[in-house]
Amino acid sequence: MEADDDKRYKVRAIDLHAWFGTSHSLKGITMDLVDRHVTAIIGPSGCGKSTFIRCLNRMHEVVSGARAEGTVLLDGENIYASGIDAVLVRRRVGMVFQKPNPFPTMTIRDNVLAGLKLNGLRTRDPDALVERCLRQSALWEEVKEQLHKSGASLSGGQQQRLCIARTLALEPEVILMDEPCSALDPIATAKIEELIHELRGKYTIAIVTHSMQQAARVSDFTAFFYLGELIEYGDTDSIFTKPSNPRTEDYLTGRFG
Amino acid sequence: MDLAGYRRRRLVDLAVRGACVAATLVAVVPLVLILGYIVVKGGAALSPAFFLELPKPAGETGAGMANAIVGTLTLVGLACAFGVPLGVFAGIYLAEFGDNWLGTVIRFCSDVMAGVPSIVSGLFVYALVVVPMGRNSAIAGGLALAMLMLPTVTRTTEELLKLVPNALREAALALGVPEWRTTLWVVLRTAAPGIATGVVLAVARVTGETAPLLFTSLNNNGWADGIDQPTASLTVQIYQYAGSPFEDQQAQAWAAALVLVVVVLVLNISARILVRHRVAGAR
Asked: Which one of A60, A106, A164, B95 is most buried, by most CB atoms within 10 A?
């Protein structure tokens, strides 16, 4: 049974706590991400949803004064166990940030290869890898003529897709997205959502979003966070049509948040 | 309408504006005079021989300062070799890990060092290097100049690294890049043009220094046999020839002054171009 669950669930957080200095921002989250499905995490600002996904690739501890406690199993292995290198965890669990952050000193091509180059890893056919990742992130047709231009020369939506391509180049197993569309216009948002649809089935994706419509559109499962606690978690359809917790219902109907 | 008040206001406006223009002119006149005087006096004494020949006894024609030109370049090169890596690494420490008491102490010392009179750094290196070595040398001169560059390079590096958006650090870390590689290849690389500008400005400043060289690299009438030997420099040569009773040596001092001013000017302009490049790249 245990082993079956570990197969079905790519990432399992067990009693996960996180702090910023003395403020306790995640209070014992226990939640599983289903392998090769999309899980949306919703909740009002400051509810800990970004903190939660940052704990899943050990990016939370990068902020000074921040720490996390608890267990996060990735394929059944605790990434918070002593002797686990956060750097290696992050290569398996990629992340896309709220604000597109391509490297401004690098070309579009080098941005895609950044994860490999900066890590001193080699690939046999970099050009093929660049094309594959850019095609996967639905950016290839728009940039194939200008691969040697700066990554900063693209529009916001293109930059975000470039950041997704950069993450895909490392062939991660899990992709965490922290409000990837909140800095983008509706057309760019639609493109990213389409992209998430295409990546589902290949990657385990967790997406934090402020837009409930977005959660409903892109996700298979939805978790509702409130004040650092997981209030409700289930498949997206039932969360949106018949939430079992009154607070979830209040949030979804816009009574608070 | 109070016409008298209006007229009075216009008069006051005219008078104050005139005073401002006059003050600006008075401030700029000495600068123009100095530059003009150097160009006229120095230009007359400049010749191919100045760049190609060694100093000769007063009265002989065809004397030059080839050794002093090479000497200044050597000294500045050594100063960069000592000062730039040290300053950049200190700046990295302050920007990335300096939020503690040690960082505060280093920052304070660096600011104090920036205000130390340059001759003091010459004396310090004299006691520390020249006396034990038993002779003046380019190494000592380079060290004295490096001490003057250090605070500028350190603080410029720190300030510019702090300007690099945190999002870029996080982007690299999230790709599984270790922290040291992130700092070197992402943060430092993004800030590199700005740091280069700071280094060029520091170089421009120390190129014109005389006082720290008087006790350290001293002077040399010929070629230095190595960087552990006394070495000529344009500034010390100017200092000595300017006090000379011989007219041709005075003329040589003017020519050296012109060369020095041009070198510093070129350095300053290249710093500006670097800045513009950086701004253009950021867009």
From this structure: A164
